[in-house]
Amino acid sequence: MRRSWVVAAFFLACGQVLAQQPQHGSSAERRLVPFDIDFARFRGAGDRIYLESYVWVSRAKLHYLPAEGRRFAGGFSVDIKAIRGDTVASEIRWERIDFVDSLGEVRDEIRIPSVGFLQLEPGDYRLLVTVRDRTDTLAQGQWLSSRVHLEPFPSDSLAMSDIQFATAIRSADFENEFVKNGLFVQPNPTAIFGTGLEVMYFYTEVYNLDTRPGADSTYTVRYRILDADGNQIRSYPPRTKTKRASSVAEIGGLNVISLKSGPYYLFVDVTDNATGEQATTFKKFFVFRSGDYTEEQLAEARQIVEQQSSQSGSGSPGSDAQRYDVMPEKELDKEFDYARYIATEEEKKIWKGLNLEGKRRFIKEFWAKRDQTPGTPVNEFKRDYLQLVEMANRNFGGFREGYKTDRGRILLTYGKPDEIERYPFSMDRRAYEVWHYYSLQGGVMFVFVDKREMGTYELVHSTARGELYDPEWERWLDPNR
Fold first, then answer.
1. Is 322 exposed, middle or buried (0-12, 13-18, 19+ CB in 10 A)?
2. Which of 108, 292, 330, 337 has the fewest Cβ atoms nearer than 10 Å?
3. Of 116, 249, 125, 132, which is closest to residue 182 (Cα–Cα)?
4. Does the structure show a pLDDT above 90 at 322?
5. Phi and psi torsions of 196, nearest 5°
6. How far is residue 284 from each of residues 153, 220, 451, measured CA to CA in Å?
7. CATH code assigned to 2-292
8. Helix 345-352 crosses helix 356-368 at what angle (to 10 degrees)?
9. Of 360, 338, 362, 361, residue with least CA distance to 349
């Protein structure tokens, strides 16, 4: 079974291959649009970071309608919000339209690539990505990243961008969204190579080469491949190149079909021969060769992926995900309601429009995209969150379930407090509690008072941003009020 999980990891990285079947008819309910996504950081203007976003969607996951000339048209839109703190710092939206001569061309293995660009200030962000079927307004997919840290590129020392993996790179005498520095670079956001894609193409940029008159006019590039344990398994001969400018694009293509299936790292090392400075960039990629597995293992892996209904960029919906396949709608609604404090408004709207099967798929994706340790069957975020729900119901329940109370909301929103001060009822004072979070926003507090003297503590004051603030909260302690 463990080996099947390894195989499944490759399918999960390109989740649309095994997700839902093509839909060419009309839809009365919302459905999910699986997609693959990747990012790469490049130097922008000033201290800004130029963040490229690569998205592709399988044709079979889109809705195609008749178009002019006896053709059919489909496509998707992408919306990416860069969220800094509680604010949308930047947003970009683009569309990709695809035409086919017949619906027979709408196949899983044909993917529509797209690319978008954001220029961001240095800092920490979360990226909210929404992909919508442009001909079916009820179809979309969504992914929320964990923290993305952006640092400015140095201006006075050798530096390199991230690596972008590609399915093809060639010279271009035209301009479109895939062309940069005179090169057509078709992205591969899955970073999967091997069967059907033997050559791993990649693109990166080198900054701040020394081009002063009289200085050595060359730089040296070397490629290395390491396995998941950090062991170097391939080292390619260094290549010396002429500096055409202080910043150059570095491209390559390596045949990786002889590597066994598994995760690897590509390292690109650059040395400026004028100064001796060195810079390195690296990125994880995967090799998948179907011949490394038996048909039984491949079939079992497909079953795992179908049960998890995962999308690229997401983690696991949890090792207990099979229970959703038989869970009644009432129980699904209850579990999603447990997550009311972490679900986005858009997710809540989508949920209301789903039927039973749609909810079963959606709840898996909901948890999967919040998994902080992708690649493992256990979803620690989901496990810990539902444990907090149980704690809230056990400790704060009464006339209402504990997760619906003020203390339940704070617990589920911010986690366990670092310290709780409990003050019991007395003749001249109502019972109250003070919760302290010392590492949140530089240290915050929440005050709950049993205002009705029925064991139901209500939030009366907090120093956290966006919460109820009442510096005169102590008036609620008066039992005669």
1. middle
2. 330
3. 249
4. no
5. 85, -10
6. 21, 22, 55
7. 2.60.40.3880
8. 160
9. 362
411 within 8 A of 388, measured Cβ to Cβ: yes
Contact between residue 80 and residue 153 where contact means Cβ atoms under 8 Å apart: no
CA-CA distance, 51 to 163, in Å (whole number)?
12
Write the pLDDT tens digit of every residue in 277-321.
Answer: 999 999 999 998 888 878 877 776 555 444 443 444 445 677 677
**Which residue blocks in 229-355 are alpha helix, DSSP H?**
295-308, 329-338, 345-352
For tokens 């993305």, name the residue. Answer: 148
Report d(CA 52, CA 48) in Å as an integer.
13
Burial label, 199 (beta-carbon count in 10 A; 0-12, 13-18, 19+): middle
Query: Is this prediction's pTM over 0.70?
Result: no
Neighbours of 334 (CB within 10 A): 12
How is residue 101 written in tokens? Answer: 């001569």
For CA atoms 420, 421, 427, 430, the dihedral sign is negative
SS3 of residue 445 by DSSP: strand
Instruction: Write out the two tokens for 299.
Output: 């079939």
